[in-house]
Structures are given as structure tokens and as C-alpha cells.
TrEMBL record:
Protein name in UniProt: Glycoside hydrolase family 65 protein
Family indicated by similarity: Belongs to the glycosyl hydrolase 65 family.
Database matches in PANTHER family: GLYCOSYL HYDROLASE-RELATED, MALTOSE PHOSPHORYLASE
Stretches assigned to the Glycoside hydrolase family 65 central catalytic domain: 318-674
Keyword annotations from UniProtKB, A to Z: Hydrolase
Keyword Hydrolase: yes
TM stretches of this protein: none
Domain of life: Bacteria
InterPro entries according to UniProt: 6-hairpin_glycosidase_sf, 6hp_glycosidase-like_sf, Gal_mutarotase_sf_dom, GH65_N, Glyco_hydro_65_C, Glyco_hydro_65_M, Glyco_hydro_65_N, Malt_Pase/Glycosyl_Hdrlase
Gene3D superfamilies on file: 1.50.10.10, Glycoside hydrolase, family 65, N-terminal domain, Maltose phosphorylase, domain 3
Organism, scientific name: Companilactobacillus baiquanensis
Annotated Glycoside hydrolase family 65 C-terminal domain residues: 684-746
GO molecular function: hydrolase activity
Domain Glycoside hydrolase family 65 N-terminal stretches: 14-261
Length: 747
């Protein structure tokens, strides 16, 4: 655990600069607008350790998969988001000497991410040969004009003598990914002008699309343009000014970024780039920023969770929401969440099961239903790829990928790729979750019924029937707890498979005759599915009264995490993989994940016994873990435990709990703060009959908390304080809800 930023309600700010924490600072000050994003690396060259990262939504490359030996059905490539052409590059010369904070003498350093306005500011005073200059950097990615990046650098001469300042503003295509298997560079420059670069991803051998990006810079400044330089991979302009004592000056850099995802030809791509550049150059910095800030204000007005009495909790909650909104706000149905969003290279920037299991429950509550529907449509549109994945394993139906950009599996670890198949059930659950929450059946009875049918066909082929036990089983899987690979009868996987078949059969009774004909499900298929539902094996221990995570789990040396020496945690950074696999320690909720999904289906005693058994064994080394345990702890009235787990999930990156934030934020786990408060502390549930209910409590060290929730055309404001719980209908038709099992009318 390491905290390098101050605790403030709306800002992530520090006045210290430690080169050892440079990457951590970059991760925590990342920006994004859903269309593109960037780590908080410096505009100027920095000669010490740094991880430069600029990423464009939906732009990726099929990198070579490095394996020791090949297996039938193994993914052909590892899909990854690639580092974009560096369009924010700006270098500075002060009296002819290059600015480099790895070498220079500087003071008064401030780095401030304003989450309310999505504005990154950096300032410092540099001392060069006895002359002092204050530099202030401002940066934002417009949410009003998604293709626009804006930078502003201001200078103030604090010296007694005139100082010469040169600014070299560039677009540089000489970039690479740090994690590229063969130190490859992924961009070929097609065209380069005085102010723009058009680059295309290099050809690949896997038949996946190549992407073209076009970037054009323009400047607003009182500095004089004195030079223009072009190389094979970079175009730059040089500006200069002699700044008198106490004088100030500034330069704005505006860059328009367009990609071939939106345009069919290079001519259309560059024409759009030119047109948008002219458009943004007709507006002032203040006009551009105000339009951007106003949209963020609307987002916060709908979704802000206000916590009084605990600034750490407040900052953590807003940091979570800021990270989510910077990554995805439903504006492009072709995009989805990457676990690191636009903040780093790890996990390849692809879509995981995180979306369905963690992101959808949050976005249902804070955005228009069409946003979540787009996420469901994302999977429907990739069914063709899911058929390929199942066929690679010799199985019927559809296997949705663990990791993907286009529906084809592109993860390079077998035990994850084709053993962690519970994600098929998580996608089915997301359809049910959306339908239950919104009351909208238009998806489930049409596109959704197709997705459910093909997932069910996969499950029906993936199970096997044990003659000895007279039950259906699923061998050779990995559950959500990835510290257990290639196990038999993972309870969560088996439970989801059974539930999916049962839910699909129910949906099939409601689809239209026309849709039923399209699905073409035989009576024999339905009969077989029902037999699996009736005879699915679910591991259970009578003595302990728990659902057993998988066959053989209880044969391990069961000792709680509390008995481990602290210097051995986190396990994934201190133990061999073999030792982890043989241990009883759980990376993230597995049985507990299933109980959270289907909370109404389990008794108080079942929830208690399973939580009491599994929580002491859980190391929470998945960023997704703490929030689920927090919800169940709250449900069981373990309030101190619920709050402690909330603090872990909400401040996971701010406090670098798992010592791994330097390579990027844990974006999909940023759902955890909202889940912990709304599902946990407020006890929000939506039941199968459509009833919305709450069982709230107030953490002891908080004065109050409040949030707004979107539900079936209404916006509800919920406030929990020391006087009790208060519910207000902000908009929409009157609604009946339950609070602590009592009916409350909202008018």
C-alpha cells in the first residue's frame, strides 16, 4: 500500500515529484474521453524511466503469440491495443538548453488531476543557468468533440534578465509498445505534411483489419513560428519568444485525431480531419473547455455519490466513477471496456467478462438503458466469432471469448482462454440482469434469445454425464479464482451452466413463433437441456454447510491468510505459480461471486457459512474481488468488514494496494466503489417481480452518503444519514419501493 497523492474530494494532486513514482503518477493522472485516452506522461522528453501511452478506442493489432509448444485450438494471436502515434509531444529549450525534469533543477512542482472537469494541470519553476521560468501545463481530451486533444503551456519569466524560450511541437510516429513480443513498431507512415501525419498499422498474417489514423496539429500562440522540420516519422514546428522580466506567454496545441473506424477511405479520413481542425480553430480555449466541462457536469449531476465525514472514501468513489466515464459512456456501440482502459498496455485493452459481471450492474444504475443495451448488442454482433471459438474446441454452439476485440478469442494462456468458460454464463446473466432491472424484454426476446440459445448449446455439449454418479459434470475448467486451474466441477461454473439452461428454456416459452422458428430448437434439445438442469452436480459439503469451490478443494491444507507472513503478500509477486496452485488461497470471489449474482436464491445461513469459510482464505489479489465480498458482508451485517472492503476497492489504485498500479489503473474494478455502496451499504436489490428494495446502513465514521439512481424511467435520490434513510423521486412516474421490507410510495 502506497499513497503518493493528497486526499481531496475532487482532485488527485501532489506537490512532490519522485522519479521512482513516475509511472505510478502517470497511471493515476490518465485522461480519456471514450474515443481515445492517454497516460499522464510528460509532453516533453524525459530521459529517466517513463511509460508513454496514447491509445485509440477500437484500434488494435494481432501480436504474435509466444508459446513453448502449440496445441490444437490455441489462439492464433494475442490481440492488443497499440500505442498511438504521439500527438501531444512538445519539447522546450530555455536559452538553448533542453528541458528535462530527470536532470534539471526545479521547485514548486504541482500535478493536479481535476476529476470534476477532467483537466490535468502540471506546473513547476525550473532553474536554468541562474534563470527561473515557471511553466504551467493544461491538458484535456474533449468529450464535446471526441476527436479533439487540447494542450496549453504557459510561461512566466521569474528572472531579472530576458530569457529565450523555444517550443518544438511535434507529431511523432516513432513509437512502440513496451510489451511487444519482438520490439515491433506497429505504424507505417503513409503521408506526412507540415502539420499532420497519416499512419497505418503494418500488415499482419492473421486476416484482421489494419487501421489508419490521421492527426493534425494547430497552434494558437503569441510565439513566432521560426522553423518546420520533417523526418520519415515525425513532423514538427518550432516557435520562439524572448520573454522579458516578469513577462508571460502561452502556446496552445490542438490536435484532431480521426481513424479508419469511422471512414472508408484515406481521402475521407483526411478530409474529416481538415474539416474538424478548421471547426475547432474558430473557437477559443475557454469556449472549448467550457463545452467539455459542461458535459462532465451533467455526468456528475446524474451519478455523483456524495460522502460526508470521510474525505478518503469520497475521493475514492469519485476516482472510480471518473475512471469509468473516461473509458466508456456508451457513445459508440462498437466499443467496450478494457480492464486498464486507456491507462496502460496490460491486458491488451481488450474486452473481458468484467463488462457483464461488474460494469453492467453499475451502468444500469447511472446511465440511460440504451448504454447497457449497446453492451449486450456488442456480444450479439460477435456471435460469428463465438461460433469459431466453440468449433476450435470441437463443441456446438457459441463460446464467447475471454479476451477479444472482434469476437475471436485472442488470449495467450490456455488455462484462461479455454478453461475459464464461466464467462459464457456471465454473459447470459447480463441479459437476465438487464431485463430484470429495466423491465425491457425487447432484447431478450429477440437478439438475446439467440445469444442464450447458442450459449446453451455450448453448455449442453461441454458437460458430460457421469454414469457412476448419475449426474452431469464439467471437468477441466478454471473458475473466477484463477489461482485454481484445470479443476473439476467448479461450483460457480456448474451453477451458471445449469441456470443458463433453465433461463433459456423459460425465455423460449415467451418468444414469438417467428423468433422460435429462427432459433430452430428441437424438442429433443429442450428435453436434454431440462435433464441437465435436473441432474447437474453442484459440489456441497454437508458437515461445513458450504458449496465447495471445486472437487478436491477441501483436501488442501486449509489455513487462513492471516497465518501467512506479511512479506509473502501479494502471493503473485512472491510465490511460484506451482505453490499458488497447491495452496487454498483464493484470488477473488468464486463461490461468493455466484452468491452475489443470485442473492435472493440463498438463505441467510447459506450466505453466512460460505462467507465465513471463504473470506479468510481470500487474498483479494484480483482487483475485482473486494467489492463482491463487501456486498455480502453488508448483507450479513458485518458492517466493519463491509466498510474495510469498500475502502480497499474504492482506493485500490489511489493507495496502490496490490503494488501494480504503475502499469495502469484497474478500470473495470472501479465499478467496485458504486457496487459496494449501492448494493452493499444501501442494500439495493431488484427482485424478479420488478420490485426495487433497500436495506441501508450508515458506516460509523461517515456522517451521510447520497446517490442518484436511474430505474425504469425514473431518477431516484437516496440519502442515508444519522437520522435515517430518505428517498426522493427526482423525475419520472410515481413508484412503490420497499425499505427494510416496508412499502414506501415515491410521488
Amino acid at each position: 500500500m502506497k499513497r503518493i497523492f493528497e486526499v481531496q474530494p475532487w482532485d488527485v494532486v501532489t506537490h512532490k515529484f519522485d522519479p521512482q513514482d513516475k509511472r505510478l503518477q502517470e497511471s493515476m493522472t490518465s485522461l480519456g474521453n471514450g474515443y481515445m485516452g492517454m497516460r499522464g506522461f510528460f509532453e516533453e522528453d524525459y530521459s529517466a524511466d517513463t511509460l508513454q501511452g496514447l491509445y485509440l478506442g477500437g484500434v488494435w493489432f494481432p501480436d504474435k503469440t509466444r508459446v513453448g509448444w502449440w496445441k490444437n485450438g490455441y489462439p492464433k494471436y494475442f490481440g492488443k491495443v497499440i500505442n498511438a502515434v504521439n500527438f501531444i509531444k512538445m519539447n522546450f529549450l530555455i536559452d538553448g538548453e533542453k528541458l528535462d525534469l530527470a536532470k534539471d533543477d526545479f521547485t514548486d512542482f504541482t500535478l493536479d488531476l481535476n476529476m470534476k472537469d477532467s483537466l490535468l494541470t502540471r506546473s513547476f519553476i525550473v532553474n536554468k543557468n541562474g534563470k527561473k521560468v515557471k511553466l504551467t501545463f493544461e491538458r484535456f481530451l474533449s468529450v464535446e468533440q471526441k476527436e479533439l486533444s487540447v494542450q496549453k503551456v504557459s510561461f512566466e519569466n521569474l528572472s531579472d534578465d530576458t530569457v529565450n524560450i523555444k517550443v518544438i511541437s511535434a507529431i511523432d510516429a516513432n513509437v512502440k509498445n513496451e510489451d511487444a513480443n519482438y520490439d515491433e513498431r506497429f505504424w507505417d507512415v503513409l503521408d506526412l505534411t507540415d502539420d499532420s501525419i497519416v499512419a497505418k498499422t503494418k500488415p499482419n498474417n492473421f486476416g484482421t483489419p489494419q487501421f489508419t489514423s490521421a492527426m493534425q496539429m494547430s497552434h494558437v500562440t503569441s510565439l513566432k513560428e521560426v522553423d518546420q522540420t520533417k523526418t520519415e516519422t515525425e513532423t514538427s514546428k518550432t516557435f520562439e519568444i524572448d520573454l522579458a522580466k516578469s513577462a508571460q506567454a502561452s502556446i496552445e496545441k490542438r490536435v484532431i485525431v480521426t481513424t479508419s473506424r469511422d471512414y472508408d477511405t484515406v481521402d475521407e479520413l483526411t478530409a474529416a480531419m481538415n474539416s474538424l481542425t478548421k471547426k475547432v480553430m474558430s473557437r477559443t480555449f475557454d469556449e472549448l473547455f467550457t463545452a467539455h466541462r459542461d458535459i462532465w457536469a451533467e455526468r456528475w449531476n446524474k451519478s455523483d455519490v456524495q460522502i460526508k465525514g470521510d474525505v478518503e472514501a469520497q475521493q475514492g468513489m469519485r476516482f472510480n466513477l471518473f475512471g469509468l466515464f473516461s473509458t466508456y459512456y456508451g457513445d459508440d456501440a462498437r466499443l467496450n471496456f478494457g480492464p486498464k482502459g486507456f491507462t496502460g498496455e496490460k491486458y491488451g485493452g481488450a474486452t473481458y467478462w468484467d463488462t457483464e459481471a461488474f460494469c453492467i450492474p453499475v451502468y444500469l444504475g447511472i446511465t440511460d438503458p440504451k448504454v447497457t443495451r449497446n453492451l449486450l448488442m456488442y456480444r450479439y454482433k460477435q456471435l460469428d466469432g463465438a461460433y469459431v471459438n466453440a468449433k476450435e474446441q470441437g463443441l456446438d454452439g457459441a463460446l464467447f471469448p475471454m479476451v477479444t476485440f472482434n469476437g475471436i478469442e485472442c488470449h495467450n494462456e490456455w488455462e484462461i482462454t479455454f478453461e475459464e468458460i464461466h464467462r459464457n454464463g456471465d454473459i447470459a446473466f447480463a441479459i437476465y440482469n438487464y431485463t430484470r432491472y429495466t423491465g425491457d424484454k425487447s432484447y431478450v426476446l429477440n437478439e438475446g434469445s439467440k445469444v442464450l440459445t447458442e450459449i446453451s448449446r455450448f453448455w449442453a455439449d461441454r458437460v458430460h454425464f457421469s454414469q457412476r454418479n448419475n449426474q452431469y459434470m464439467i471437468h477441466g475448467v478454471t473458475g473466477p479464482d484463477e489461482y485454481e486451474n484445470n479443476v473439476d466441477n467448479n461450483w460457480y461454473t456448474n451453477y451458471l451452466a445449469r441456470w443458463t439452461l433453465e433461463y433459456t428454456l423459460k425465455v423460449l416459452n415467451e418468444v414469438s413463433d417467428e423468433q422460435a422458428a429462427k432459433l430452430n430448437i428441437s424438442a429433443d434439445e429442450k428435453k436434454h437441456w431440462q435433464d441437465i438442469v435436473d441432474r447437474m452436480y453442484l459440489p456441497y459439503d454437508e458437515k461445513l454447510g458450504i458449496f465447495v469451490q471445486h472437487d478436491g478443494f477441501l483436501d488442501k491444507d486449509i489455513k487462513p491468510v492471516s497465518e501467512l507472513p506479511s512479506d509473502q503478500l501479494p502471493l503473485n509477486q512472491n510465490w511460484s505459480w506451482d505453490k499458488i496452485l497447491r495452496s487454498p488461497y483464493i484470488k477473488q470471489g468464486d463461490v461468493i461471486q455466484g452468491i452475489w449474482d443470485f442473492m435472493d436464491d440463498f438463505t441467510e445461513d447459506e450466505k453466512k457459512k460460505n462467507f465465513d469459510f471463504y473470506e479468510p482464505l481470500t487474498v483479494h489479489e484480483s482487483s475485482l474481488s473486494a467489492s463482491i465480498y463487501s456486498v455480502l458482508a453488508a448483507d450479513l451485517h458485518y458492517e466493519d468488514k463491509a466498510v474495510a472492503l469498500y475502502e480497499r476497492t474504492a482506493r485500490l489504485d489511489l493507495d496502490n494496494y496490490n503494488n501494480d498500479t504503475d502499469d495502469g489503473l484497474h478500470i473495470t474494478s472501479m465499478t467496485g466503489g458504486w457496487i459496494s455502496i449501492v448494493h452493499g451499504f444501501a442494500g439495493m436489490r431488484v427482485h424478479d417481480d420488478g420490485t426495487l428494495s433497500y436495506k441501508p446502513f450508515l458506516p460509523k465514521k461517515w456522517d451521510s452518503y447520497s446517490f442518484r439512481q436511474v430505474f425504469r424511467g425514473r431518477v431516484i435520490e437516496i440519502t442515508i444519514d444519522k437520522s435515517g434513510s430518505h428517498f426522493k423521486l427526482i423525475s419520472g412516474e410515481p413508484l412503490s419501493i420497499k425499505v427494510n421490507d416496508e412499502l414506501v410510495e415515491l410521488n
